[in-house]
């Protein structure tokens, strides 16, 4: 695929990611994706011959990878402990949410909640992505001396704390739940 084809594909995925995060799976129709991405219908089916679910899966995969990369970047560049790394991650997500006027939160949650009972491949993709984030948090804790079992339990609590705070912040149009989650993570890991 040439550079133009790669750019077209990237525009389709980027538009889909933005739409999914802001309005969910059902409200993200292919016509809207085409309009938002500025691409012709033929390009959509050239790059994603299996249609909407293939495009959504790619958008979720890239969103998940982006979050994993951010977690890894914070882990790799940290000079403070895990509590500060997690607090900084939550702060970055809070800033992102504020900048989007609370239209964006977790790049997976909107879709995960909507399709978990009706679309097994997308449910599994979301579950696997959440598991990889939890594993990243657990690995961070293990480097600080936590046992693997304890690190996994705490990482699960941190992920739950983060996801709940993102949901509440979006519903309340306030970053306060995220600020409280950051403080709670610091207390949990103190």
Relevant terms:
mainly alpha, 9 helices, single chain, 190 residues, Tetracycline Repressor, domain 2
Task: Walk me through this protein's architecture.
The chain has helices at residues 3-23, 30-37, 41-47, 52-76, 82-99, 109-115, 120-142, 148-172, 176-188. With 190 residues, it is an all-alpha fold. It has a single domain, classed as Orthogonal Bundle (Tetracycline Repressor, domain 2), CATH 1.10.357.10. Residues 29-48 bind DNA. Residues 6-66 form the HTH tetR-type domain. Keywords: DNA-binding, Transcription, Transcription regulation. This is TetR/AcrR family transcriptional repressor of lmrAB and yxaGH operons.
Task: Note the topology.
Blueprint: H1 3-23, H2 30-37, H3 41-47, H4 52-76, H5 82-99, H6 109-115, H7 120-142, H8 148-172, H9 176-188
Keywords: DNA-binding, Transcription, Transcription regulation
Organism: Kitasatospora gansuensis
Domain HTH tetR-type: 6-66
Brief rundown of the structure:
With 190 residues, the chain is an all-alpha fold. It has helices spanning 3-23, 30-37, 41-47, 52-76, 82-99, 109-115, 120-142, 148-172, 176-188. Helix content is 77%, strand content 0%.
């Amino acid at each position: 695929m040439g550079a133009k084809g790669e750019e077209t594909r990237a525009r389709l995925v980027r538009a889909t990611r933005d739409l999914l995060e802001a309005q969910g799976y059902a409200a993200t129709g292919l016509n809207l994706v085409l309009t938002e991405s500025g691409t012709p219908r033929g390009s959509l089916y050239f790059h994603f011959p299996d249609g909407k679910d293939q495009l959504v899966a790619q958008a979720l995969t890239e969103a998940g990878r982006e979050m994993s990369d951010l977690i890894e970047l914070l882990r790799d560049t940290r000079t403070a402990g895990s509590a500060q790394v997690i607090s900084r991650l939550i702060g970055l997500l809070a800033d992102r949410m504020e900048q989007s006027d609370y239209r964006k939160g977790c790049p997976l949650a909107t879709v995960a909640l909507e399709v978990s009972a009706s679309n097994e491949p997308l449910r599994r993709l979301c579950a696997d992505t959440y598991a990889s984030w939890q594993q990243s948090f657990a690995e961070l804790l293990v480097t600080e001396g936590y046992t693997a079992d304890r690190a996994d339990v705490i990482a699960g609590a941190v992920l739950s704390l983060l996801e709940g705070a993102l949901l509440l912040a979006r519903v309340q149009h306030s970053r306060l739940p995220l600020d409280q989650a950051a403080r709670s993570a610091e207390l949990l890991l103190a």
